[in-house]
Design brief:
about 55% helix; 3-stranded mixed beta sheet; 2 helices; 3 strands; about 20% strand
Length: about 120
Amino acid sequence: MGLLVALTFLILLLVLVVGTGLWLADLEGRHKPEAAALEQRVALALRRSVGEVPVIPIAYLSKSRRTPDVLEVHGPVASLEVREAVLRAAADELSRSHPGCQLSDRLAVAETDRRVVA
């Protein structure tokens, strides 16, 4: 009788562990389409406001409510003005479509030759 109870307990524990693992895997699967949709919305907003720039938005959506979602903006820009315009457009889109998401600046401003020819 004791062996039957122990075997039943082990089977229930195994079902619980497998079920939890499948649930966590499903959560990650739901975040990928959300992240892709957010990246697409920000890329379209950048095209509308700044034009064609070689900038790539990458979204990292947290599985936990304790950790904030982050959108990184990567790529080279021609000037500080373009950098500010890109960051402003990305921040505006995030405030509309995904409030609470943090914006991370990974932009590189291209060095320009500012020598004066006399």
